[in-house]
Amino acid sequence: MSLSPTLHQVCSSDFVHDDFLEAMSGKKPTFGSKSDWTDRAFSRFQLLMDLCRLANQTINATIDRFTMQSIVISNMLSENDFNTQINVTLDQLYRSTVADFRFAVDIQRLFVQIDQPYTGKATESNRYVTNLIIKRNMTYSVNNPQPSQVSFLFTEIYDGNLTLINCGCATNAHCQTSAFMYHDKNLAEDGVYIIPGIVEGCFVINSLLDSTLQCLYPDSECFPILFGRLLEGLTDELRMDSW
Questions:
Q1: 144: pLDDT confidence band, cut at 50, 70 and 90?
Q2: pLDDT over 90 (residue 206)
Q3: How deeply is 213 buried, as exposed, middle or buried, from its count of CB atoms within 10 A (0-12, 13-18, 19+)?
Q4: Cα distance from N-terminal residue to C-terminal residue, the chain
């Protein structure tokens, strides 16, 4: 018996290849604003590639264990009974494999939610998702003593107009808003394009798993719009017709 699993179409696309990720890692911000999704897309594609590889490794390991097993019966089975037993076994194999993979991903999401990791300092040009940092007011002099002040800034999410949404990541792991990109260098509100099917969550793993990835399909209406912007500034070897 041989088993030939089929992964998600995205996992066999060029978006999870090392060459594409290498090119994306060297991409500079197009308009100088990290609020633009296309200027932060590398981390999303990197995680997507890691999840595809994890899924493939999980499936291959499961198949290897399954094919090494033997069936021991006391009586000869008819062909119909044999096929029924095999189908039941394969269904259980499928369900357990999916459950194991989902458990591994959920554990990772839980650790990220609990740890609230620091991922970089928020600035005026990077207000889309602010991060957990500690601010210290260390101003002190003999004549004018001031106590040090420590405050925690937890991860928050802004929408396309850079308006803070009413959702705190420290208490709600499901905070999200639509991802967007700018059409022009002026970063004007009327130049904002909401990317269909792509959301921004508290952390990268939330953003990726809660997105539909519909814009990664060449036959979608948003594909040429998104990747026309995404591929700006990359090397000459990367062109739209190669994806």
A1: low
A2: no
A3: middle
A4: 35
Structure tokens at 206: 């939330």
Q: What is d(CA 226, CA 38) in angstroms, rounded to the nearest whole number?
A: 8
CA distances from 7 to 11, 39, 53, 55, 232 (A): 6, 28, 10, 8, 30
> What are 2's two structure tokens?
């041989």
Inter-CA distances, 3 with 12, 59, 84, 90, 93, Å: 18, 10, 17, 10, 11
Write the pLDDT tens digit of every residue in 2-13.
Answer: 788 888 889 989
Range of the domain at 21: 10-129+158-242
Determine which of 2-6, 18-22, 154-158, 196-200 has the lowest per-residue pLDDT on average.
Answer: 154-158
CB atoms within 10 A of CB 81: 12
Q: Which two tokens stand for residue 102?
A: 């989902």
Determine, yes or no, domain membership for 60.
Answer: yes
The three-point CA angle 151-153-159 to 5° equals: 150
Higher pLDDT among residues 132 and 78, named by residue: 78
Token look-up 């002040």 returns 149
Instruction: Tell me, yes or no, whether 140 lies in a domain.
Output: no
Task: Write down the pLDDT at residue 214.
Answer: 93
Token pair listed for 104: 């591994």
> Has residue 151 been placed in a domain?
no
- Does a structural domain hold residue 136? no
Name residue 152's beta-bridge partners: 134
Which two structure tokens, joined as six digits, stand for 75? 């009586």
